[in-house]
Design a protein that fits this description.
Chain B: InterPro entries: FAD-dep_OxRdtase, FAD/NAD-bd_sf, GMC_OxRdtase_N, GMC_OxRtase_C. The complex is a heterodimer of chains A (199) and B (545). With 199 residues, chain A is an all-alpha fold. Chain A is built from 7 helices and 1 strand. Classes of the chains: A mainly alpha (199), B alpha/beta (545). Bound molecules: flavin-adenine dinucleotide (FAD) and iron/sulfur cluster.
């Protein structure tokens, strides 16, 4: 995985004592995600975790668990989805249909469930769905494959890039209140920021 | 439900008002003015009208935020600052709503806006006359200039001593921001190399202490709500001042219908914690932004006004405009760290005015724009201009270089088109109100304009030493839907925001825009609101509305 992590020694969470209380609570909770789900069925949650793992190219269980828990929470929540394209099912329904569609596609192409496929074959299934060139048309009559893929990728990426472990991977400075930044210009860093030479 | 006359005089509402639901009312009988929406326009109006001694009630659908308790340095959780209720989207280029352009709660969009604070140019008010496209406004730049002056002074806008484009050349009331972020520095250097003039952005963000508030600490989370209160918002400026002047501001109150008595508005119906209430008023001002204001008008149809209120022209909901707001992300050999500093600290309006040889009318602003991981990864994964997706190993490896990326953003003029519209869908929300449908498709001029801009952004990125790698298709801001004009057959309100059809109904905010310009809109939203306030105070004193 560590193809080129630029800041191997950096851990953004080490700075959490310098964050305001509210932010610390929000980010801290991501390190201990719920494993019980409110909307997803156990089999759906497992399948979703396998898909998410391919989408973000990461196998760390604590991160994947958080992403799935976050998506589940949004599916159970009464808060709206900001916008929905005319003709696309509601998010709850889109996920239910879409996850079933992934399984159907996996069976149609490889004759077994998604979770049992090799990484390469899993990618192949998702590639077909992302391009809308599915083999198993019938599974996608009520929800277009591309619409599902876009929503799924969007939700996955938003949650994944909110995890402090991932922030550390990419060298993101993370929460910055109350201290802010003093050295913002080219080539300058404040002492707590990620350093490429790993100090 | 809209034509149900019984609902128009609900006794339940009177009972509900006196029930123990925690809603303490100051002007329960009748107010002089009821303002719907406590956003950029609603805040200015509430303050100005209360200061003039009028009895003002503001009804706001969202919460009364406490920045210290409710905000956080976090992208994902702060999406709650947006209007997240589902809206249906349609057209060839369906809009991304929510956090991208709609606020909810006291302060409205200003709570999570970026704070770039520009004036429109003279040409923006007369695109039909100047370029044969769009429509002329019923006012000129010079009608609005004193109000731009007033608003900029009142909120201590920081900006350069000299601003090289448009009629206003500076200086701004507060000193220019210094230092600027690496991304902004690189952008300015790149522009320099190409002979493109650039400036440090004028911002509704403090460069020095003002009114008990501190200067910006370069935290970079303007789009998540400013915790130190360095950035202007209606939440921390106009609304508290309005309350101090006697205005009543009720949060968590969603207006569902405008009430009529004959040919005049008599008040509004609103829902608070599941109960319906009424607010009667001599004048009602709708300041609920581009989607909700037309939705309310259309939903309040009566037998006298079957097409919806203020809609004899048929223009309610029509000609909505976003800005085209494509991004170019480029990879540099050095660290840029897009998370640091106020997101926009440099911009150019070099491409602002029409140049015939470019093959399209009107123009745009380009800004150096910061970005945080959720924003950047989400955009390059799912909003690519080429309509492909980026995921798996490619996405992960791109994001491992997050700190090496620079970003430039477009604010491009989109011309008004009647097919781009807010209408009511057949689906209903939990208040029984029809869910709005928002239809948008770029037209040919719009596409040529943003393609030109992408070319220039790529050029500047290269001059910055970067390799343009990701072009993101995005929009920003919303305007129009209840446009102003002199001709009652072609517009919804007059130059002061007064309905052509119903004299005591006003509309304020971005929905009255006739064209979109190539500038961020909020300075114009607030200046127009201040102008409406002046007019209304005069009219109400003379009992003329
Ligand atoms: C991410 C982002 C960045 C931005 N950056 C900039 C920038 O840098 N510069 C700039 O100039 N502009 C920027 N904007 C745009 C700016 O926020 C808007 O132009 C401005 O807020 C519009 O003002 P308004 O008064 O028309 O509406 P709003 O400020 O949106 O206020 C409308 C209010 O009405 C309330 N409301 C709606 N319906 C009802 C109802 N039925 N009952 C009660 N209340 C209701 C809403 O909850 C909201 O609070 C940005 C916007 C966003 C979202
Ligand atoms: S960058 Fe400045 S204005 Fe923006 S949120 Fe931070 S302190 Fe507030």
């Amino acid at each position: 995985m560590a193809k080129h992590r630029r800041y191997p020694a950096y851990d953004v969470w080490e700075e959490h004592a310098n964050w305001d209380v509210h932010t610390r609570q929000i980010v801290g909770a991501r390190k201990m995600p719920q494993v019980a789900h409110s909307y997803l069925l156990p089999a759906e949650a497992l399948l979703l975790q396998a898909i998410v793992s391919v989408l973000v190219d990461d196998h760390r269980l604590e991160v994947l668990t958080f992403v799935v828990a976050h998506i589940d929470e949004s599916l159970a929540s009464p808060v709206g989805e900001s916008q929905r394209k005319v003709g696309v099912p509601e998010k709850k329904q889109l996920y239910r249909l879409g996850l079933a569609g992934v399984e159907a596609e996996s069976h149609a192409e490889f004759g077994c469930e998604f979770g049992a496929l090799s990484a390469g074959d899993q990618e192949q299934v998702l590639k077909r769905i992302s391009g809308g060139s599915v083999k198993e048309q019938e599974a996608w009559t009520h929800a277009a494959a591309v619409d599902f893929f876009k929503k799924l990728l969007h939700d996955t990426v938003q949650a994944y890039y909110s995890h402090p472990l991932v922030w550390s991977d990419i060298g993101y400075g993370g929460p910055a209140y109350p201290r802010g930044y003093v050295r913002v210009e080219k080539g300058l860093t404040d002492p707590w920021e990620a350093k490429a030479n790993g100090e | 439900m809209a034509n149900n006359d019984e609902k128009r005089h609900p006794n339940e509402a009177d009972r509900a008002r006196s029930s123990q639901d925690g809603l303490v009312r100051k002007y329960a009988e009748e107010a002089d003015v009821c303002i719907v929406g406590a956003g950029a326009a609603g805040g200015v109006l509430a303050y100005e009208l209360a200061k003039a001694g009028l009895r003002v009630v503001v009804l706001e659908a969202g919460p009364f935020w406490d920045p210290q308790r409710d905000f956080a340095s976090d992208e994902l959780s702060m999406q709650r600052l947006a209007w997240q209720e589902t809206r249906l989207v349609a057209g060839n280029d369906p809009l991304r709503l929510g956090h991208n352009n709609s606020g909810r709660g006291i302060g409205g969009g200003t709570v999570h806006f970026t704070g770039v604070f520009l004036r429109f140019h003279e040409s923006d008010f007369m695109t039909r006359t100047a370029d044969g496209v769009g429509e002329d406004w019923p006012i000129t730049y010079h009608d609005l200039a004193p109000y731009y002056d007033k608003i900029e002074r009142e909120i201590a806008v920081s900006g350069p001593h000299h601003f090289p484009w448009g009629a206003f050349q500076g200086p701004y009331p507060y000193p220019v921001r210094e230092p600027i972020s690496a991304n902004a520095q690189l952008f300015r250097e790149g522009c320099d190399k190409l002979g493109i003039e650039s400036v440090v952005a004028p911002l509704a963000i403090l460069s020095a202490p003002f009114d008990g508030r501190p200067p910006c600490i370069n935290r970079g989370f303007c789009n998540q709500g400013c915790m130190p209160n360095a950035k202007y918002s209606g939440l921390i400026h106009h609304i508290p001042k309005a309350i101090a002047e006697g205005a009543e501001v009720l949060s968590d109150c969603t207006v569902t219908e405008i009430l009529m008595a004959g040919d005049r508005v008599s008040g509004v119906l609103f829902s608070h914690q599941g109960l319906m209430h009424r607010q009667m008023a001599r004048v009602v001002i709708l300041a609920g932004f581009v989607v909700e204001t037309p939705r309310l008008l259309l939903n309040s149809a009566t037998s006298r006004f079957p097409q919806g209120l203020a809609n004899s022209s048929g223009w309610v909901g029509k000609a909505i405009m976003p800005h085209s707001s494509h991004d170019v992300y480029g990879r540099l050999p050095e660290e840029v760290r897009l998370y640091k500093g106020t997101p926009v600290l440099a911009l150019t309006q070099h491409f602002y005015e029409t140049e015939r040889e470019r093959g399209f009318a009107r123009g745009y602003t380009l800004s150096a724009h910061g970005s945080r991981p959720v924003g950047m990864a989400g955009a390059i994964a799912t909003e690519r201009e080429d309509k492909t997706f980026l995921w798996g190993k490619q996405l992960r490896e791109t994001m491992l270089d997050y700190n090496m990326y620079a970003r430039i953003t477009l604010v491009g003029e989109v011309l008004p088109h009647p097919d781009n519209a807010v209408t009511l869908s057949g689906e209903k929300d939990e208040n029984g109100m029809p869910i709005p449908k928002v239809t948008f498709s770029y037209q040919e001029n719009d596409r040529k304009l943003y393609q030109h801009a992408i070319g220039q952004m790529n050029r500047i990125m290269e001059a910055m030493g970067g390799k343009p790698e990701h072009v993101v298709s995005d929009t920003a801001h919303l305007m129009g839907g209840c446009r102003m004009g002199n001709n009652p057959e072609q517009s919804v309100v007059n130059e002061f925001g007064q309905s052509h059809d119903i004299p005591n109904l006003f509309i304020a905010g971005a929905s009255t825009f006739v064209t979109s310009s190539g500038s961020n809109p909020t300075n114009t939203v607030m200046a127009l609101a201040a102008r409406t306030a002046d007019k209304l105070i005069e009219a109400m004193q003379q009992r003329d509305v």
